[in-house]
Design brief:
Layout: E1 2-3, H1 8-14, E2 19-24, H2 27-43, E3 48-54, H3 61-73, E4 77-83, H4 89-101, E5 107-113, H5 118-121, H6 124-132, E6 134-138, H7 143-156, E7 159-160, H8 163-172, H9 177-191, E8 194-195, H10 198-204, H11 213-222, H12 225-237, H13 242-264, H14 269-275, H15 283-292, H16 295-312, H17 320-331
Parallel strand pairs: 1-6, 2-5, 2-6, 3-4, 4-5, 7-8
Length: 341
């Protein structure tokens, strides 16, 4: 049974499932959902707990052995599997499917993983988990969802602020709920409970935005220069390696080239999107970039990418971060005065 994070507590109050699977790319929400499940399980008599970190070389027979050993001693326990990736692999898929076929009454299985692909959601192992218990896909909060989350979090500490304060707080902790929770705790320590104005938030809250290469690419496709420069500055300050950024830029540029070529050859745009795994959420951004960028523009992006790559390897003089700045602006169709070669 698939649930949203806000549906978890009410569901746990009604009954406890034998299996829980939480996946997503927001660590705070995953951690708090797992804590909620552990608390409910302990209250139901699952007093023991065994944790397995699943990475390369993990022996999946440990899952069955843990469940069987607890059955022997008639003690209830939580078995936690923490997947280092978003999929369990071939052996893991078999083990999870087998476990879910006959989950032991003395064990509660709690699995956490990264964000799942559409293919994983259709897999037999995921369907087995969903059928045997509860699956929750944690999604990054944006827009009004993020504002509501911040308001609820503030309220839980006895704090209130208006829409302007919420928007300011959201802009400072964008994409990072852990940072948001920490900043709200700081606000409580500084000011106690009560109403907060924007000046108090402005003074106390650090700019803890989590900028990553995927948000950078979305900003490039949307042609937003100010946001591009801010994200690049954040990536630089966080010590992100230039090759990571180049990988994303070159992948996106080559995808656009391939889609353009497919359309020229007579392929429908929707078919080209499907063949190059452009999902619904990104179609407007990609469509906008396709209309804006010519073949010559994309050639310039690839030439600048090669220059930045050489600079990052010490094979060409120059500041790789300055080249990345120019590269991103050129990709976003922003006029810049800089040599391409």
């Amino acid at each position: 049974m698939q649930l949203k994070t806000e549906q978890l507590k009410p569901a746990l109050q009604k009954s406890l499932a034998p299996v829980y699977f939480i996946s997503g790319d927001e660590p705070l929400q995953i951690g708090e959902a797992a804590d909620t499940i552990r608390t409910a399980a302990r209250q139901a008599g699952f007093t023991s707990r065994e944790i397995f970190s699943v990475d390369t070389g993990f022996a999946w027979n440990q899952l069955g052995m843990a469940a069987d050993s607890m059955s022997i001693f008639a003690d209830k326990q939580i078995i936690e599997l923490r997947l280092s990736s978003s999929t369990p692999g071939i052996e893991g898929a078999k083990a999870l499917t087998a476990y879910c076929g006959r989950p032991p009454e003395t064990s509660l299985l709690l699995v956490t993983a990264g964000k799942l692909s559409k293919e994983s959601l259709k897999s037999k192992w995921f369907q087995a988990l969903d059928k045997a218990g509860v699956t929750i896909q944690v999604r990054a909060l944006e827009g009004q969802d993020l504002l509501r989350w911040l308001q609820q979090r503030l309220s839980s500490r006895g704090l209130q602020t208006g829409q302007a304060g919420l928007r300011l707080l959201a802009s400072r902790v964008e994409g990072n709920l852990l940072a948001a929770a920490q900043e709200i705790e700081k606000l409580y320590v500084l000011y106690g409970d009560g109403a907060l104005d924007t000046q108090q938030i402005e003074t106390a809250v650090a700019d803890s935005s989590r900028y990553d290469v995927f948000k950078l690419m979305d900003s490039i496709l949307a042609g937003k220069p100010n946001r591009i420069l801010k994200i690049l500055s954040g990536l630089h300050a966080e010590g992100v390696a230039p090759p990571v950024i180049l990988w994303a830029i070159m992948r996106e540029a080559r995808t656009l080239v391939k889609i353009k070529w497919a359309v020229v050859q007579g392929q429908g745009l929707e078919t080209a999107f499907k063949n190059h795994q452009i999902w619904d959420k990104r179609k407007p951004l990609v469509s906008e970039a396709l209309q804006r960028l010519s073949d010559s523009d994309l050639d310039k992006v690839l030439v600048l990418s090669a220059k930045a790559d050489r600079q990052s390897k010490g094979q060409q003089a120059g500041d790789v971060w300055e080249t990345l700045r120019v590269l991103c602006l050129v990709f976003a169709s922003v006029p810049v005065m800089a040599p391409i070669g």
